User: Fold Sensor histidine kinase from Paenibacillus thiaminolyticus.
Amino acid sequence: MRWNSIRTKLILFMLIATIVPTVATMVVSYSYTTDSLKRRAIEENRQLMFQGKTNLGNLLDNLNRTSLAVYTDHEFFRQLELGYDDYTAEANTYVSLQNIATAMGDIWQVYLYRIKQQRATLVIQSLPRRMHDVALDENVQRYAQDGISMQPTHLSGTYGFNASPYYFPSIQVFTLHRPIYRMPSSERLGYLSIDVKLEALSRIADQLYVRDKEQFYLVDDEGAIFYSGDREAIGRPFQETGHDLAPFLASPSGSIEADGSLFVHERVETPLINMTLIKIIPKHVLLEEANRAAVVNMLLIALSLVIIIIATIIVSFRITRPIRQLVRYISQVQTGNLNVDIQPASNDEIGVVSKRFRNMMDRLNNLIVREYQLEIANKTNQLKALQAQINPHFMNNALQSIGTLALQHKAPQIYKLVTALARMMRYSMYTDESTVTLREEIDHAKAYLQLQAQRFENAFDARFDLDPATLDLSVPKMTLQPLIENYFKHGLEQERSGGWLRIASRIITRPADGEEAGMIEITVEDNGRGMPLQRRIELNERLEEVHPERLGIRTSHDLWRGAAADETSSGIGLVNVLTRLQLFSNGQAKLRIGAVDPHGTRITILIKGELDSNGSVNH
Assistant:
């Protein structure tokens, strides 16, 4: 199936006309659906994250109020402030810590250190433990040295206590560390640390995301991860997840699209700590519903396309079958079978064309018989004209005799003119060779210009700008003279001095539009009257239509009649010159007419030449 056939074009057009709107509709629908789902997901997740923010804020507020019991329990604070160190004070301390430990169901253990007594008390799951004359736990000292703080999620420790007879495994907890001050001074009386089980955060966070599809992080301003759906990420820096925390700290809430995911974040600010809830929804999860719809649509479209393609091919074959049959008839005519039996295959417009073509071939067969007769008569007349020509040797000898006589009478100018005329006649009358070199054409042109210079009393100046590498180019005989004659018939102004005619040749190395590297350019230009723009356009259009493959049976007669018509027109054989050039060069020749600024005419010939290794034309 050729790409330039009507059948192929029809199939492609019908497929494009059906496929493009269908695919465009699917793309627009998918785009609208994805945008709608994205907006809805952002809004729903913002509301969900706001609810999570509220729940987390309540949890941290409860933890803060629970830790403030050391101040609201006046008896406990009085004993701590006065430094009582007896059995009653120890019992009250245990009761107060037990109340703190049971105030929230997720508290794992409570640690109290009294600075003055250097005594530590630990209540873990309602079991008290005490140590005397011990230093403050290093972990508490590190986190509480600047005031109240939250320690990120970690495995619970013993705060320096020895192993308990009761087994309490280490679990993941986050810890509130609070210094206890002698109010209203800044003197520290002790330290309170409360370990809260991670389940307190997981109950809130697990309602905010879908495990195995989405990701969730609870991060403080330092980048520490308090909670995550990825258990291995808990307690590690947020940067290790491959994300940057800075964009989420820039605004209290919002959404960000990056790295093929949607990030929804909400900031929580409490007296204890500032945290950010970050939810990551991959695009493929976000658009899962849209993708399923797209797959269904694609399956339906694929089924539709199969039906459309089959129907298109059937319709196109039925429409183009008569055209292809007509093309076969034309191909047979082109091979020379002018008596082909043309049978119209349909009654539509194509059938009408077939009938008209059959009628045309009938008339053409009748005309060809008469045309052959005219061609034979034309050849006979040409033969008779050749037989009636004067012997070229006789003419050459006669001109030499006249030249000798001119020298004897001391008229060298006449001798030069007679010699030039003899060269021209010898060049034109010897018909053994139909092609010559550009050098021989230039010599003939110089002889012709020498005679014209005498005729017009040197009213013009002949200039030659020839590339020696082009002089061995083979061209049809009598190529340049018809172009030069244009100047003397239509361009030369005898009343104005300073006229010139220039003949140039070059090998094109930097091709412009319509040119190829290695082509030979031959230019004949003058500064005469020039040619009107409209006439120049018409001639160029006529020259563009000249192609050797368009010359059929009537070639000889057409060239004869066309040459005669050109001789009486302002073209002066331009069509004939171009036709011979194209026949000589297998169609690789061009001729165009241009203008010379400010006035004048430029005729340019472009012809393909074979170059040798030195860049010269092969003869």
Q: What stands out?
A: Residues 145 and 179 are 8 Å apart (CA to CA).
